[in-house]
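Researcher: Re-running this chain for the archive, since the previous output was lost when a drive failed. Same request as before.
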Amino acid sequence: MILIIPAIDLKEGKVVRFVQGKYEKKVYSSDPVNVAKHWQKLGAKMLHVVDLDGAMTGKPLNLDIAIKIAQELKIPIEFGGGVRSEALIEKLVNAGVLRVIISTKALEDENFLKRVVKKYAEKLIVSIDEHNGAVYIKGWKNTAKKISTDALIEKLKGAGIKEIIYTDISRDGTLKGPNVMGVKKVLKSSGMRVIASGGISSVLDIDKLKILEKHGLKGIIVGKALYEGRLTLGEALKRVG
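Model: Regenerated structure tokens:
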């Protein structure tokens, strides 16, 4: 069954929303832990927690909040945003984070990637963030040395990565629907487990992606649509149940 994964985007200790990687100054809550418990209560089986400050600065600034969420909830979380050292991966794993999301460091340092995959294996998931065919890193501020998504996928497969998050940046936070063809292409070229992110606006979008379950789609990250009331978590869960 496909997981519906509510997103909790953290900036300066608050739950916020970005659009295409740009802060739109929309604060949904000043209590991220309470928000996490809310999604758990409504039936979420996993949460996607991102430190936006960390993604942009290279060092997580909301780490204590993420760890508190991981330790106080019964459901697992995946966490990313500025995770660029083996020591931090180890800290997160020891704190109870189920999946540690890596991106920038994994793309820039192949030796680092191979080393952490060998040590942490299934505890890692790589985020591929794409815009118009280019892969972006460092909080979506820079392109990754002109490497294509296909070339990156081959690199990740060679390193032993088994699961990825695919985000179409142009759809993120826009409520314009997911890039279904882009997700399908990544599923086909990678042969890996894939979590789709970006653009979900309604249960119809969930339906469009659910078709890809047979191709290996494992999860759908939903953010703004839940916070803006475009769909409820219950409705989304029913669509994939």
